[in-house]
Each structure stands twice: as C-alpha cells, then as structure tokens.
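User: Fold both of these, please.

Assistant: Here is the first one.
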Amino acid sequence: MGCLVPTMALNRLPAEFREVLVLFEIEGWPYKTMAATLKVPLGTVMSRLSRARRRLREELTQIQDGEIEDEL
C-alpha cells in the first residue's frame, strides 16, 4: 500500500482543507503568506489547517480500520 493510503486520505479532504494542509505541511508556507495568496483572513487559514489535520487523522483511521477497503 505504501504511499497510496496517505494520498487517498488526503484526496478525500475538502479542497479548502487539502489546500492549506499541502501548502503548510508539504510546501512550508507561513500562515501569512497563505492568507494573502488565498485571500482569506489569517484566522481562517489557522482554523482550516486545524480542521484539515483532524479530518486527515479521521480518514487515515478509517482506512487503517478497513472501513473503506473497497476503495483500495
């Protein structure tokens, strides 16, 4: 499975959550840069990132628990 599971979990997130998660965690963008680029308040970036992390954990848990085996 390797990289398939995290990628699948990430792809299941809503676009606005996936976007901030990738920009911050993978690309290393600072909050202020994301807020300016996405044209949203700084607080929105921070709350989306928090929600994105929580949803990603939930998706990974579901996959790990075999609740979505048919998608693999």
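And the second sequence with its predicted structure:
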Amino acid sequence: MKDFRTRLEEERPYLVRYARLQLRDAAAAEDAVQEALLAALAGESGFGGRSNLRTWLTGILKHKIVDAVRRAAREAPLGGEEGDEAFEALFDERGHWREFPSEWTDPDASLSQKQFFAALEQCLERLPSKTARVFLLREHMGFDTDEICKELGITSTHCWVLLYRARMALRECLDMNWFGKK
C-alpha cells in the first residue's frame, strides 16, 4: 500500500485543475492546493479512510478556495464587470436575442460523456472571472445567494444578474462547441 504522502501527490493534478476552474488564477490555485495538501498532511489521522481520499481532499480544498475568494474580494479593485460587451452582443437594441438559442436534443445523454465536461470547462474558462466565480459557488459548490453575496461583497440583485449571464453565456458556448449549432 502506498504511503499517505504519495497518495496525496497523486491527487495533486486533479486538485490543481479543480482549483484553477474555481479561482481562474493559476497562482491562487497553486496556493490553495498547497494549503489543502498541508492541511491534509497535518490532519492525516483525521482521514482514517472513511471516505475516498479525493473526496476528502476536495472538501479541504473547497474551504481553501473560499478563503482565497474572500481574500480576492477584499483585495479586488473597484471597476466594471469585464465581458459585458460580449454578453450584450447576444441581444439586439430592443433586448431580444439576435439568434435564438437552439434546443438541446438530449442533455442528459451529453452529461454522461466525459468530453462534455471538457467542453463545459472550456466554456467556464471563457466567462468573466466574477461571473464564473458566482456560477461555480452557486452551482458547483452549493452556496446559497446570501452566502455568495457575503463572500463577494455584492448585492443579491447583482448575484442573480451574474448567474443569468453565466447561464446564457454557457448555453451559447455549449451550443457552438458541444452541440454543434451555428
């Protein structure tokens, strides 16, 4: 059986990918993973093998990511949301779709395919950083709106706008890059 440190190091690439997707900053992701691995080493006796190692490590990493998001929110410069122009280009001057999104024929079948997740990850990486962060906190990490607003220092209205924009941009991106529309 492999020693604990070796098993941790084998999970590192997965943890880095996960953290990069959440934080969208390579340096911050590396820092969060290092903090998570150090916490795991310190808490080795608490692991006990009651769950999958990856699941346990991901749980630790989620807390480190939340800490990183808090730090980033405290240190973030004031300014507008990037990517607004690209989002606005989806609609005409009256606020109607320029091209209505196509129907998805069988999204459940697509979800089961590994390639779909790769396409989804690429689409998430194209979102503006704050939009992606709000979407991932809500849909992937299960935070409720109040928690997201508190963590990022935004209003609930702004949160819902960012979630809407993320969903629409992801739909557009997946239409083009997965479902082969357009």
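The chain has two domains: 4-75, 84-177.
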